[in-house]
Amino acid sequence: MPSRSPWTCILWDVDGTIVDASEGILRRLTIALEHFGKRPPTRAELVHWIGPPMFESFQVNVGMTPEQAAEAVTFYRGLNKSEGYSAGARLFPGIGELIRDAAAAGIPQATASSKPEVQVVALMDHFDLSTSFISIVGATPDERTLSSKSDVVAEALRRLQAAGVDTGRPVLVGDRHHDVEGAAEHGVPVIFVRWGFSWPHESEGAQAVVDDVDQLRALLLFGDAADPHEGADD
């Protein structure tokens, strides 16, 4: 078992990185948008919805006002709560083992998700991953007070620091341009995973790009004698 890493801590995006919740998201979006007289997305169009805060997505994707978006978020989250936050969700292959192995190797980890924190906690509990994290960080329930990736990353770093973790060399693992841009505001490099819901150009600005969990594992756990910047995309 590796005991060292080029990183002092790891931050994890959740939707599209750890968890594939697309089945449930598509079902709830269909119900919610039809309720508000909007056309629901196709599965191919989920790329526009998974990643950013829902409050933002209802405005950008279907032209709602902030007030309408707030109402839609409340309706959508009500559906989510009634059917269970983990309904239809699954882990991407190998990712649970990697998170557990990183924890066993002594690498402090935290989630940094734009998903409401109560849902992130429920998902990590469901998949028996909660004990692998020093802190589980997500958005506030209204998705407005704390929801942008930049703010969530800042909160994750703050909680890790409060727990005595060295945050001098952090890394974020994510699958959307919001992850890259939000982390960059705090000087945090991003390892971009291609198995999520993204367009090819969204990896621009990432420290490195990986196609599978084995490649990610090599960057997180087997770089003890290597430069953490080695293998980065130009």
TrEMBL record:
Entries under InterPro entries matching the protein: HAD-like_hydrolase_sf, HAD-like_sf, HAD_2, HAD_sf, PGP-like_dom2
Database matches in Pfam families: HAD_2
UniProt cross-references to Gene3D superfamilies, sorted A to Z: HAD superfamily/HAD-like (3.40.50.1000), Putative phosphatase, domain 2 (1.10.150.240)
Superkingdom to which the source organism belongs: Bacteria
Stretches of the chain forming a coiled coil according to its record: none
Protein's name in the database: HAD hydrolase-like protein
Annotated organism of origin: Microbacterium jejuense
